[in-house]
Structures are given as C-alpha cells and as structure tokens.
Write a structure and sequence with these properties.
Blueprint lengths: L4 E7 L15 E8 L2 E8 L9 E8 L13 E5 L3 E10 L2
Antiparallel strand pairs: 1-4, 1-6, 2-3, 2-5, 3-4, 5-6
C-alpha cells in the first residue's frame, strides 16, 4: 500500500498525557482523529520518535476513503489509548 499523506506530528510529553516511551522501528500503528471521525493508520518515519518531539511521517490508512477527511493543512489528533499528540497534513498523495 502506498502512503496517502505526508504529515507533521507532535507527540505530547509524557508528563502531559503522552506516551511514556519512544516509538522505534520506523513504523507505528495508531488512530488519527479529525472532525469527530477516527481512522486506523500506519505511520512510517525515518527515526525514533520520542514524547515531546515533532517529526514528519508518511500515513497509510486501513480504509483509503479516510483520505477524503484529511485535506492539506488539516489538523488532527493522534490517539493511542487516549489523545497522545496532534498533527497537520502537509501533502495528500494524488
């Protein structure tokens, strides 16, 4: 499956309800929320992401129709057992 979005995400620091550990392995399965809708996604990234850090990632949705809800510039939440961060869509794949 090809990436459908390029995004910038910011994980909340651990002391503000974020994850308590870094995300390693270049891939993370999570849920992105926008407009009251939540979509299963796989984030692909180049390096370890630590709580409190901002990074760029590619997004693959489990359901491709999710892309319609994420136009360029849109802001969304990152959910993993609760909101653990947020992000912004940079580009949408054609």
């Amino acid at each position: 499956m090809a990436a459908q979005l390029e995004v910038e995400i910011v994980l909340a620091p651990s002391d503000r309800g974020g994850l308590t550990h870094a995300i390693t392995g270049g891939e993370w399965r999570t849920v992105l929320g926008i407009g009251g809708e939540h979509w299963s996604a796989r984030l692909l990234f180049q390096h370890e992401i630590t709580p409190g850090e901002k990074c760029h990632a590619q997004v693959e949705f489990l359901f491709p129709e999710a892309t319609e809800h994420f136009p360029a510039g849109a802001e969304f939440t990152v959910w993993h057992g609760g909101v653990v961060g947020g992000g912004r869509v940079i580009t949408v794949a054609a």
